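fwd from M.: "can u put these together and see what the complex looks like"

so here's what she sent:
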Amino acid sequence: MSIPAPRYSVVNIVAAAVLGAGIAFASSLLADDSHRADAAPGGDEVVVYSARNEQLIKPMFDAYTKETGVKIKFITDKEGPLMQRLKAEGAGTPADILLTVDAGNLWQARQMNLLKPVKSTVLEANIPSHLRDADNYWFGLSVRARTIVYNTQRVKPEQLSTYEDLADPKWKKRLCLRTSKKVYNQSLVAMMIAEHGEQKTEDLVRGWVANLATDVFPDDVKMMQAIAAGQCDVGIVNTYYFGRLLAKNPKLPLKLFWPNQAGNGVHVNVSGAGVTAHAKHEAAAVKLLEWLSTPKAQSMFADVNLEYPVNPAVPPAAAVAAWGTFKQNPINVAKAGELQTAAVKLMDRAGYK
Amino acid sequence: MSRPFSIRWQDIAARGWTLAAAAIALLVLIPVGVVMSSLWMPAPDVWPHLTAHVLPELLRNTFWLVLGVGIGVSVLGVSLAWLTAMCEFPGRRLFSWALMLPMAIPAYVLGFVFIGLLDFTGPVQTALRGWFGEFPFPAIRSHGGVILVMTLTLYPYVYLIARNAFLTQGKRTLEVAQSLGLSRRAGFFRVALPMARPWIAGGVMLAIMETLADFGTVAVFNYDTFTTGIYKAWYGLFSLPAASQLASLLVMLVFALILIEQYTRARKRYTSTGRHTDARDRIKLHRAARWSATWYCVLVASIAFVVPLLQLIDWALSVYQSDLDARYFEFLLHSIALGAIAAVIAAAVALTLSYAARHSRTGRTRWLTRVANLGYALPGPVLAVGTYIPITWLDTHVAEWMHAAFGIEVGHLLQGTLLTMLAAYTVRFMAVSFNPIDGNMQRITRSLDDAARSLGVSGIKMLQRVHIPILRSGLITGMLLVFVDVMKEMPITLMTRPFGWDTLAIQIFEMTSEGQWERAALPAVALVIVGLVPIALLTRYTDH
């Protein structure tokens, strides 16, 4: 039985790949010592677990390292797995800071005893009280407004008023929504429960579902594109997605509307952070959070993603300011966490997928 | 005198193999067990809600998805495998490897490409509306859409394995069938197909397990399945018991599927005639059939690969100037390294298990083999947590023990290293390499061993000269499949990667989690291109 030559070449290639990989592996194991946070307790380093995307945090961290010499290591993932990871690691966790893109998960992290309170006059002075935990377990770092977006060719702004109004039959087959699985919508509905109670909120959500023009979307961007294309007329969106889409395609017939201005105001959430319960570099972590709340960092943190700064002394980016000013809902964003489970169940009952 | 000795030796060997199989099954059972540990904890506030408002739909959806994908991959995989292995038509050589390429595109990527192209706002419907005004177009975000996307990315499993089976089956069996008066069609359905059945069934099982464990694709379609239900219970309702109970149901469902599949093939043993099909053996199709075969292959290859890749490249070109930087080289290297190491480990583990199943005649070992393959059915996000919890536990206790016993501070030995990642990958993807390896193992008959022994070949020599040549194609197939799968894997990579070990799949996550599909195309294109290399090797190798 003769074996054709190509067989050997394949085997060789596989062998070479394995060998190369083995070397990479070995070197990584050796290099890993430098990765171990606990190898240098109290050193000039902070470790962050972040649900906020790499491209939104890395510029900030790079700037901080440049300014202070403190190194920042981070891992990104979704909030859920990050919290599970913290929980599993317990006292041995290398993480000093948990950074999320919503308040609900920070509230949950506190319930799971993953965070510790921080006493900092700087943070208390820079961040309004409704955008941080009442006992200082976590702090908002940027504000994300979830508001109404509409097709300018098919809707006049006078026709719009509140989130609740979108449940009115006049919007039948004209509403588009993002999936209820996204925590932004869970927070919005949680805040509605805080305001109206479960029964009325469920009726309202049922009204939304009855008005849907098409199945709910997996993300805000696709939903806005559908509104622009005329598949529906109106939807609910985080403003930075709107800003990003319009920056790419300024001709889209889309505009933002600030709802509930006569009532409680626009629903806001925060991207925020807390120091972990078993932080190895607690002081350095607090310093980083304080720095992030200062005007210079606030501009960067918010502007990189067209969000609003939490620090009231800092104006938003010009492009963001152009959307106008609005009254934000003053209820503490922690409420969204408290009522999140109720909101998820309510949306299931109402058939909001 | 030698007889009793050899019997005892075989007993010991058999017990050793059973122990090895048990160790591997345990490795898989730990994460499964961790997930199931809250199985008996009550979740009274969550279950009534789930049964009333969540479960009925997700059971229905999961059922249709599994049925649709199961039928889809069987039909596509087997028909294409038969055509390229046994028939002669224009383009056959090209298609024999080109039809494997869809495997390089992760299902979640194909999902967002299809939605981007075919949804209301996509170029296709927009153009149709431009020409005809209001135009009725089937919704892509639907049962059909998810089934289509998953079928197109998963059929290569069936194709590859079935094709190998047809090739090694040889044409002689078919000739026998024809000489006994069966038509060509009857020969296919009554002889070739039943003979290839264990391999086809193995491929379809892989596809179904992957479907059940999928989270990324169904999330893109917002299609609620068991996996999304687990995710919702865990991270939306924050009920670990409910999530764990749902995951247990899923595992039991898969186990039942495995048992049914094995029960229906009962005690048949499959061996091959051992001669490979070559050019002379192929069925010459007549004119109409020739070109239909070509067009069929063109259609599948374009829908599943060429068009999506072109769309990805188009998107990638629009962002590469701002996004492509030196770090991409690092992402690429990490993806390749992780894929390669995991491939070797998974193949080694699968090989051990396959030998164990062969050597030990006990039913116990067969059970252990089944259990060890269950990891593939666990959704990635669940398995990631299931692996992470015991590893951190072990780490903490080893560190405490070292401190108490020797006063040595060892820090973390496992957590935050690649070992954690590789353990999780092995648990998840071992089944992928087990299937082709075990498929080949079944061809090493006892009479073959006896024949070799009577010629004085035994021990290591037997391995070198008899077993390895027969197993080689299965080993390489297994390794390359795992390599591609690991590169595409997302949730385990996200949760267990050490600092700085970002990969191409992580980069796709960074973009898609913010709805930036166009920007995700850049790492996706890179991932697809890297995946092409092993896939090209794979088909070239199996094709001689």
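replying to her w this: Chain B touches chain A through 72 residues (CB under 8 Å).
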